[in-house]
Amino acid sequence: MSFVLYPYRSGMLVELRKPHPCGSRVWRILRVGADARLQCTGCGRQMTLGRRRLEQATRRILEEEADP
Length: 68
Fold this sequence. Notes:
By secondary structure, the protein is mostly beta strands. It has one domain (13-63). Helices cover 10% and strands 41% of the residues. It contains one helix and five strands. It has one helix spanning 51-57; strands spanning 13-16, 26-32, 35-40, 46-50, 58-63. It has a five-stranded antiparallel β-sheet with strand order 4-3-2-1-5, covered by helices on one side. Strand 2 and strand 3 (35-40) form a beta hairpin. The termini are far apart.
């Protein structure tokens, strides 16, 4: 199924459902494709999530990337 809930782009800030061990729920999207590279805004740790898993884990989009 190719249903897309959120239009993810690099630079966006997203809030995930579960908090990171550092306590932050906010992540910055670094790269998007079949999977997404995220960076925690609290401690700077990076992780990779599959697109489907990211859509399930996203609570809301906090900040859109500014259009150039």
